[in-house]
Amino acid sequence: MSESRKVVGAVALYPSPDALVAGLEEARKRGFTRLDVVSPYPLHGIDHLLGKGPSKLGYVALVAGLLGVTLSKVAQWWMSEVDYPLNVGGKPLFSWPAFVPVTFELMVLFASIATVISMLAIFNRLPQYGSSLLRSTLMRDLTCDKFGLVVDARDPQFTSGGIRAALGGSAVLGIDLLHEVRPSRFFSEQIFSVRFLLLLVAVSFVSVTATHLVWKYAGALPPFDFMKAQEKLNPQRASSIFADGQGMRPLQAETVPRGQLPYRFADDPDGAAARMVNPVPLTAAALERGKDRYDTNCRHCHGLRGRGKGSLTSAFPKAPSLHGIKVRNWTDGRIYHVLTVGQNAMPAHARQVERDDRWRIIHYVRALQRSLNAPDTDLQ
Amino acid sequence: MSQTATSFEPVPMILGEPTPAQVDADIAAPMGRIPGKRWWIAIAITSALMSLGMALIGYTVYTGIGAWGNNSPVYWGFGIVNFVFWIGIGHAGTLISAILFLFRQTWRNAIARFAEAMTLFAVMTAGIFPLIHTGRPWLAFWLFPIPNDMRLWINFRSPLAWDVFAVSTYGLVSFMFWYVGLIPDLAAMRERATTQAHRIIYSVLSWGWSGLNRHWRHYERAYLLLAGLSTPLVVSVHTIVSFDFATSIIPGWHATIFPPYFVVGAVFSGFAMVVTVLILLRQTFHMEHLITIKHLENMNKVILATGMIVGFAYCIELFTAWYSGEPYERFIFWNRITGPYWWAFALMFGCNVIVPQIHWFKKMRTSIPIMFVASLLVNVGMWFERFVIITTSLHRDFLPSNWGMFIPTAVDLGILLGSFGMFFSLVLIFVRVLPVISMTEVKAVMPGAQLSHHPGHLPARQPVEDVDV
Amino acid sequence: MTTPTAISPAPVLMPRSLRQTAIGILVVGHLLVAACALADLDRFFANWLVLFVFAATIGIGALFLVALEYVVNARWSIPFRRLSEHLAGLIPVSLLLAIPLFLGMHHLYEWTHADVVAADPILTQKSAYLNIPFFAVRFALYYLIWLLFYRLFTRLSQEQDRSGDEALTRRGIKLAPPFIILFAFTMSFAAIDWMMSITPHWFSTMFGPSAAVGGIVGGLALLTLVSAQLKIQGMLPERIGPDHFYNLGALLFGLNTLWTYMSFSEFMLIWYSNLPLEMTWYLQRQEHGWSLVTLLLVFGRFVIPFLALLSRPSKMNLNRLRWVSILLLATYGLHLYWVVLPGIPHLHDGPFSWMDLGFPLTAIGYGLFAWIWRSSRAALVAARDPRLESGLSFHL
């Protein structure tokens, strides 16, 4: 026991809280000021005897909680209204009643984490594995059923030789001197030391990278890839669902694809002329639509007013005027036939122009024709 | 001593007047020795169930949710029922730990540690269900608002998103509360350690705790703050779980009373589970003098009170459904009572409303066999309550052409059994490695533990200076 | 040992000035109320309903606190229990206030108009419950139960002042749980009958329980106000100290937060699912200037009291407790006003008119009247309660 290690303090053991208080009072009377009490559970009222007020931890919780509220409100607002606004059930983009639950949870989360971490690391400066008090032989009793008075060697009243006499009394069960602990090579004392934080960063980096790589590559293995490799019909691919392995299926006999009605007069312009009648009623809306479709699909060749002065001149043969006597005498059905199957250099426009829109274009063309060849009655 | 003179004296919460050292020894005893046969048999059963559950979960992940009974129109089946059931059980732990602490009910000290651990295990078990019911659990990180290459954020307006935050916060805060409470006990275990390995482990886990008053000051304040934060947290968690249902428009789900009704129901089932497990624990480890009949009786009173509130909520729901005059509302409740799931409703009503009534009688609520059976029945009833709410409201809602039945598959049942296996396995392991009763808290309230005269009335004095040893 | 010598079981008479103030307030209040009745009968009945519910629910809430103490075996509240019993005197007083209500049923409830009910299939369905005879029977039942327990609790407490008999406390402990159960049902259904049926198409399962908790908060706020005021005036025993008031403040804080939580979740769920049937109730309270009242309620009933009672020392500060209680009582009245008035067709046009002024005054007047009446019957503290010593020596 003849160590040359420095004495950093002393601890005296008492059998009961009242004995401890008596010892504490005695020590204070003798002028000791660097004192503390050790107990296996908190003693109510001892703070008062040590002159200590309430802990300020509550402010940490308050500030952290407010931070959580603010952050969550701002984040939810930004994510729901600014960055990715989505109409969900008609609710406003900043749905404050709907944001309350998450806000509350984040407030509690921030406040709790801040409380625990600051209590341990900041206020109590734990962990302190290098504490000499932990190495005292009296520690076993102090965590079980006895109470201790600790005096720091830096107290002006402290002397290594005299401390036993100073603290000794009838109630004292034992006194232990606390010796300085050699700092460990690997373990630094504080949680906020540079080495420990760097270690945390390194571990985080490694685990994040590993997770990312695993997710990326394991995602290609079954069963994780089942969503991608589904047994469904993909266009222009072979398929195992059908016996012949073909993905694209031919039309069933006796069926017509949706949206397509067969044109009966494909080779029969006279039949079209004679038998087809414009089914679309002549209304202002129909004319509007007809004009719109004409301007899109016909104007480039036949011109703005149907006089054949279109914008496609050089490479294309000139389109005829629609005001000629031939066209004016055609029935609507005959014009419809030309629109649907084409004529000479004019291609079939069935695919570009919907069936009813073709009839509306015909209404518009009739209006154009009338505009340049109006009967006298129009002018009266 | 006449009956009247002592009739209002507080009942001692520790029997036999042990010394603090004996209390320490009694609590540390299960950790020291090799477990007996009963423990091995128990953990064999629970691990077997847990393995069954894990295997079936693996099967579900491989095959898809089609392996479960979920189908049109009951799209939420056992997954959600089990989730709500387990989360509910966790709430009792926080209530005992935090709320009874705030009300200064010191009888909670002997059971708080175990109850808090039970909360953690229940939350862990519950957390599995939202994870696996999505079908692609490896994409679970999509639930969090993390910047991603799809430029998406989560839908903060959805109660399911709120659940993510609520359950995560609850798990984390419960863990911290439990762990902070453990630190002084771990310090005591460190000092009692017989092998170097144990000493190192407990040293690291106890963060070098020595019991200095300057540490206790902040520790106590942190504990109070955590208790104060956990109390609204536990209410908010089950409220948010209830929002999963109440924010919908389905009759039977959309009821404004759901939030407090669910919270009270959670406390009800949680306390029943605590009673179940504590009865087994105290007997196995001979801790009847620390977890006394009085503790169990108090818990049974809470079970009775919360059970009555749940029954009251049933009555209000039934009345309001009739009062509303809405045919859909009325039908849902009529269908619950008389439809194809009438037997589930009967079980629920019988176990939740009728069974707890026995606790009006002192003889019943202080009898171990009776309260054990009652607590089991309460949990059965509460599981069926969630089943009734979810299944009956979904299986016959607005359009009759949409009606159907929900039939659970063997996989569903296996996973449910597996969840019980997981929960009880965790409990059994906990019992062997950590002190199930808080040595610190129990010693702190024993007679003679504190100063005989509170010095609060003495004049303030000079603060002592910092000790750094 | 069971009779602390310092506290006398004799009642303390309130000073004359208080009685005169009460009379003065009641006279002025009634004059203004009568003016309202002459100007707008609908408004009169609506405000009178608010006044009646305010008085009744606070009285029953105070009685609930008495029962709660017996059930949970609380010690710290024993010195306050007698004050609660006095405040429960508002129950018989409110029965008096109910008379004009029955005269005004046609102005308040549209389901009392047979022609309206006949034309509406939903109201016809509800008419099995919403009809005047059944309404009256239920009303009588609620009051029968409340008055019975009021009498039982106050009687046993006053008898204990004379005998100090422990068996009386045991009787209280036995009576408390049945009362609490009946309280839950009667208060919820009373709220449904008196307030929810104003908008007979609307329904909410939370309405009844929320109103019940609101009544408890009201009763507790009044108790806090009265005890803080009496303590400041030195009329309470010395030993009732900051620690007792801390608990009172903490309970008030907690219960008010609970009530806020219930109200908010009711609102949030209805807002979220946006069903036309349910949403109309809240929309009525959003239009025509009523949103101002909603905002006042949010701040006055939750934000300010929450912040004011958050810290530990604030709950022990008697002045703080006093003004927060006054604020909570005022906002409770405002809350009931906000619940009742917008539901009545032409009153929906806008909050606040000079005609409303008489009613809060009358409420205060009747409150003072109930207090003076009851406090003259028994001491301010249950002097010979066998557990009083344990209650007085309570420390945090």
Write the layout of secondary structure elements.
The complex is a heterotrimer of chains A (380), B (469) and C (396).
Chain A lengths: L6 E8 L2 H13 L5 E4 L7 H4 L7 H27 L12 H28 L15 H4 L4 E6 L10 H5 L6 E6 L14 H25 L50 H7 L8 H14 L1 H4 L22 H5 L2 H10 L13 H18 L3 H4 L1
Antiparallel strand pairs in A: 1-3, 1-4, 2-3
Chain B lengths: L2 H4 L13 H13 L4 H27 L14 H25 L6 H25 L25 H34 L3 H10 L7 H34 L11 H27 L8 H32 L2 H12 L3 H13 L7 H4 L2 H28 L14 H24 L5 H6 L25
Helix pairs in contact in B: 3-15, 4-5, 4-8, 4-9, 4-14, 5-6, 5-15, 6-7, 6-8, 8-9, 9-10, 9-14, 10-11, 11-12, 12-14
Chain C lengths: L15 H24 L1 H32 L5 H10 L2 H8 L1 H5 L1 H4 L5 H6 L1 H6 L5 H32 L2 H29 L12 H26 L9 H32 L2 H9 L5 H19 L9 H23 L17 H18 L12 H5 L4
Helix pairs in contact in C: 1-2, 1-16, 2-3, 2-4, 2-9, 2-10, 2-11, 2-15, 2-16, 3-11, 3-16, 9-10, 10-11, 11-12, 11-15, 12-14, 14-15
What distinguishing features does this structure have?
heterotrimer, A: 380 residues, alpha+beta, Cytochrome Bc1 Complex, Chain D, domain 2, four-stranded antiparallel beta sheet, 4 strands, rod-shaped, B: 469 residues, mainly alpha, 16 helices
Structural account:
- The complex is a heterotrimer of chains A (380), B (469) and C (396).
- With 380 residues, chain A is of the alpha+beta class.
- Chain A has 2 domains: 1-187, no CATH class; 269-373, Cytochrome c-like domain (Cytochrome Bc1 Complex, Chain D, domain 2, Orthogonal Bundle), CATH 1.10.760.10.
- In chain A, 44% of the residues lie in helices and 6% in strands.
- In chain A, strands 2-3-1-4 form a 4-stranded antiparallel beta sheet.
- Chain B is mostly helical.
- Chain B contains 16 helices and no strands.
- Chain B starts with a helix and ends in a 25-residue tail after the last helix.
- Chain C has one domain (16-391).
- In chain C, 73% of the residues lie in helices and 0% in strands.
- Chain C contains 17 helices and no strands.
- Chain C has helices at residues 16-39, 41-72, 78-87, 90-97, 99-103, 105-108, 114-119, 121-126, 132-163, 166-194, 207-232, 242-273, 276-284, 290-308, 318-340, 358-375, 388-392.
- The chains are: A alpha+beta (380), B mainly alpha (469), C mainly alpha (396).
Q: Hey, which two chains have the biggest interface?
A: A-B, 91 and 88 residues
How many structural domains can be distinguished in the coordinates of chain A? Answer: 2
Element pattern of chain B in H and E: HHHHHHHHHHHHHHHH
On the 0-100 scale, what is the average pLDDT of chain B?
91
Tell me about the largest β-sheet of chain A.
4 strands, antiparallel
Low-pLDDT regions of chain A: none
**Portion in strands of chain A:** 5-15%
Biggest pleated sheet of chain B: none
The helix content of chain B, as a percent range, equals: 55-70%
